[in-house]
Design a protein that fits this description.
The structure is a homodimer. The first copy, chain A, has 11 helices and 11 strands. By secondary structure, chain A is of the alpha/beta class. In chain A, α1 runs parallel beside α2 (about 45-50) and α1 runs antiparallel to α4 (about 135-150). The interface of A and B includes residues 109, 110 and 111 of A. Chains A, B: InterPro entries: DDH_dom (IPR001667), DHH_sf (IPR038763), DHHA2 (IPR004097), DHHA2_dom_sf (IPR038222), Oligoribo/pAp-PDE_c-di-AMP_PDE (IPR051319).
Chain lengths: ~300, ~300
């Protein structure tokens, strides 16, 4: 049984693309496979599974040595189980930069494309066999693309991601604006999460000026709900950083509908980062960054200190 | 101008696949590109260029910082210019194991497939646009596949490599057995090369039991020509190893037509490797290994000490 596995913070793409590829391996390639997760899906991903009647994949803590695994939506060992290089990675499908940490013992299939979403790459790899897919698989694929592109608002969006999503929506009879509004409402419902969980929910590690950063993003249609919790979120940052071996946490609250982000500014280091990276003027403990929506395209490349 | 670059020891695939991809970038994608080499093409690759009227690509020593480069037929920094991680790698197309040393700053196109030949992967990526290709490009593609598969004899050969080569040969009106015989005669004409050049001609670095090995292969239809030089070849090994930071050189003379290899045995270390890796009985300074043709599939995975 092949395990299909995404990164440690299961958003829609990291939850949905293992489901899509496990379907493809089982039903088209006739190879037994199962989607697995490294943690609880976020609220949008959980909503997606319910909406399309897909069973929640098993949550695993690690992989056995020699276990066959397909890695999707990441290629970074820091986002994978500790034993990833002892497992047998048989395929990688991803849309992130090449992190350089995974080695394989033999040549395998690796497909990395500069598209907004892993599910778009899978759409292309599956090709005409997608006609065999049940609505649930197409619905998951559509959700992944709308999630990663923030309904085509993110600058990571390519014309191809958009065309694939529009084709899937037409096929499923889904109205994209209505559907995306439901998705984003689910993503924005974070009332059940503690402050430290929010800081870790969608977070990537990044080194800047000798400091190890957690660069965290919360995409929401209700930014005020999170801004109302800003004091508690900032108070939780030193504990999360210490527990995770980081020096600082940067939290960007991305306002999907108004296409802007608010960065919390708990200290002078983050103030300097905000000023040097985004040419911003910081006066209080938050700073508004107009147009900033994508960690990959706009935040990480800009980071300076 | 994008540079398209293969590995350090330009055989037919490492010479031809940059030529193919530079054609595709220039003529189909309308993006200025040039094939380049890291050294003189081997005798087979040189014959291929002459046979199809392709100008020999420029030989370069290094890349400038930020220079755009497509890496083909390798993904291993040890086989690339020293400054590869300062250059701007914009695409990788390969059929080797993931070596893990290249990092990229943004997501790029990476296509690695467990096929016998990079040119086969390019055939698939180019798709219907191959109809626009001149005969020279198809002829180079055919040569790469016949070279890497040793005319379908190598165990690395897949049904897909074979089907692509047969389609290309039919299209070009080329008789594969006659054509391959000419190719292999060119590859076997190594009279102009000094012993140290032969030891480095088709060589990969590999660590075994704490020792750094140069695992060298010479594919030939005239093994006796090389066996007649075995004393000189063994005498050259310590100097080549020392100059290249290796501990030992393993030289496998692959007899293409009889589908077997002869390993030179200059010392007790190599004798032990031969015995432990291939269950061979070594009595003199050579050992015949029936059926062994592929470094990737049969030699490297078997190496033990």
């Amino acid at each position: 049984m092949i395990k299909v596995l995404g990164h440690k913070a299961p958003d829609s793409d990291a939850t949905g693309s293992p489901v899509i590829w496990a379907w493809y391996l089982n039903e088209v390639r006739k190879t037994p496979a199962a989607a697995v997760l490294q943690g609880e899906p976020n609220t949008e991903a959980g909503w997606m599974l319910t909406r399309w009647g897909v069973e929640k994949p098993e949550i695993i803590a690690d992989l056995a040595a020699g276990e066959k695994v397909v890695v999707v939506d990441t290629n970074n060992p820091a986002e994978l189980p500790a034993s990833i290089n002892e497992a047998d990675v048989i395929e990688i499908i991803d849309h992130h930069l090449l992190a350089g940490g995974i080695k394989t013992k033999t040549p395998i299939n690796i497909t990395i494309r500069p598209l907004a979403c892993t599910a778009t790459i899978m759409h292309d790899l599956i090709g005409e066999d997608l006609a065999q897919a049940p609505e649930a698989i197409k619905g998951v694929m559509l959700t992944c693309i709308l999630s990663d592109t923030l309904e085509f608002r993110s600058p990571t969006t390519t014309a191809h991601d958009r065309a694939v999503a529009e084709k899937l929506a037409a096929d499923l009879g889904v109205n994209i604006p209505d559907y995306a509004a439901e998705m984003f409402a689910a993503k924005s419902d974070v009332s059940a999460f503690a402050d430290d969980a929010l800081l870790r929910m969608d977070s990537k590690e990044y080194e800047l000026g000798g400091k190890q950063l957690r660069v965290s993003v919360l995409e929401t249609t209700a930014p005020q709900v999170l801004l109302d919790r800003k004091d508690a979120l900032m108070a939780a940052m030193p504990g999360v950083a210490a527990a995770d071996g980081a020096d600082e946490v940067l939290l960007f609250i991305v306002d999907i509908l108004n296409e802007q982000a608010t960065l919390l500014v708990p200290n002078d280091f983050v103030k300097t980062v905000a000023e040097k990276s985004f040419n911003a003027t910081v006066t209080g403990d938050t700073v508004l960054l107009p147009g900033i929506m994508s960690r990959k395209k706009q935040i990480i490349p800009a980071l300076a200190v």
